[in-house]
Protein backbone atom coordinates (compact mmCIF):
# COMPACT_ATOMS: atom_id res chain seq x y z
CA UNK A 1 0.00 0.00 0.00
CA UNK A 2 1.33 3.43 -0.95
CA UNK A 3 1.15 6.50 1.20
CA UNK A 4 0.40 10.17 0.69
CA UNK A 5 1.24 12.78 3.28
CA UNK A 6 -1.29 15.58 3.49
CA UNK A 7 -1.06 18.68 5.63
CA UNK A 8 -4.34 20.06 6.96
CA UNK A 9 -5.02 22.99 9.26
CA UNK A 10 -5.08 22.09 12.96
CA UNK A 11 -8.83 22.66 13.23
CA UNK A 12 -9.52 20.22 10.34
CA UNK A 13 -7.17 17.64 11.87
CA UNK A 14 -9.05 17.89 15.16
CA UNK A 15 -12.41 17.62 13.38
CA UNK A 16 -11.25 14.52 11.45
CA UNK A 17 -9.98 12.90 14.65
CA UNK A 18 -13.20 13.66 16.54
CA UNK A 19 -15.42 12.46 13.68
CA UNK A 20 -13.40 9.28 13.21
CA UNK A 21 -13.73 8.48 16.90
CA UNK A 22 -17.44 9.35 17.02
CA UNK A 23 -18.14 7.17 13.95
CA UNK A 24 -16.06 4.28 15.35
CA UNK A 25 -13.35 4.26 12.69
CA UNK A 26 -10.21 2.37 13.76
CA UNK A 27 -8.17 5.52 13.12
CA UNK A 28 -8.38 8.98 11.56
CA UNK A 29 -6.42 7.58 8.59
CA UNK A 30 -9.17 5.07 7.91
CA UNK A 31 -11.73 7.87 7.99
CA UNK A 32 -9.67 9.81 5.42
CA UNK A 33 -9.31 6.69 3.22
CA UNK A 34 -13.11 6.23 3.31
CA UNK A 35 -13.64 9.90 2.40
CA UNK A 36 -11.29 9.47 -0.57
CA UNK A 37 -13.08 6.27 -1.68
CA UNK A 38 -16.44 8.06 -1.56
CA UNK A 39 -15.11 11.01 -3.56
CA UNK A 40 -13.62 8.72 -6.20
CA UNK A 41 -16.85 6.72 -6.39
CA UNK A 42 -18.90 9.89 -6.98
CA UNK A 43 -16.50 11.20 -9.60
CA UNK A 44 -16.39 7.95 -11.57
CA UNK A 45 -20.17 7.58 -11.47
CA UNK A 46 -20.65 10.98 -13.07
CA UNK A 47 -18.06 10.56 -15.79
CA UNK A 48 -19.62 7.60 -17.65
CA UNK A 49 -23.00 9.33 -17.74
CA UNK A 50 -21.45 12.40 -19.30
CA UNK A 51 -19.63 10.29 -21.88
CA UNK A 52 -22.89 8.49 -22.70
CA UNK A 53 -24.71 11.82 -23.15
CA UNK A 54 -21.97 13.17 -25.41
CA UNK A 55 -22.04 10.01 -27.53
CA UNK A 56 -25.83 10.21 -27.88
CA UNK A 57 -25.61 13.82 -29.08
CA UNK A 58 -22.79 12.91 -31.45
CA UNK A 59 -24.81 10.03 -32.95
CA UNK A 60 -27.86 12.28 -33.42
CA UNK A 61 -25.68 14.88 -35.10
CA UNK A 62 -24.19 12.25 -37.42
CA UNK A 63 -27.68 11.09 -38.45
CA UNK A 64 -28.91 14.64 -38.93
CA UNK A 65 -31.41 14.19 -36.08
CA UNK A 66 -29.97 16.92 -33.89
CA UNK A 67 -32.11 20.01 -33.73
CA UNK A 68 -30.11 23.15 -33.12
CA UNK A 69 -31.03 26.72 -32.47
CA UNK A 70 -29.08 29.55 -34.08
CA UNK A 71 -27.02 31.57 -31.60
CA UNK A 72 -28.83 34.82 -32.32
CA UNK A 73 -32.14 33.14 -31.48
CA UNK A 74 -30.72 31.81 -28.21
CA UNK A 75 -29.50 35.30 -27.29
CA UNK A 76 -32.90 36.73 -28.18
CA UNK A 77 -34.74 34.12 -26.10
CA UNK A 78 -32.50 34.92 -23.16
CA UNK A 79 -33.10 38.63 -23.61
CA UNK A 80 -29.41 39.30 -24.21
CA UNK A 81 -28.06 41.52 -26.96
CA UNK A 82 -24.86 40.43 -28.60
Automatic annotation (TrEMBL):
Region of interest: Disordered: 1-27
Sequence ranges assigned to domain Ribbon-helix-helix protein CopG in this UniProt record: 4-43
CDD domains: RHH_NikR_HicB-like
UniProt biased composition (Basic and acidic residues): 8-24
Domain of life: Archaea
Pfam families: RHH_1
Alphabetized InterPro entries for the sequence: Arc_rbn_hlx_hlx (IPR013321), CopG (IPR002145), Ribbon_hlx_hlx (IPR010985)
GO biological process: regulation of DNA-templated transcription
Name of this protein: CopG family transcriptional regulator
Amino acid sequence: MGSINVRVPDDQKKQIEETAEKENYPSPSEWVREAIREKLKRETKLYPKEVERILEVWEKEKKGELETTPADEVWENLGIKE
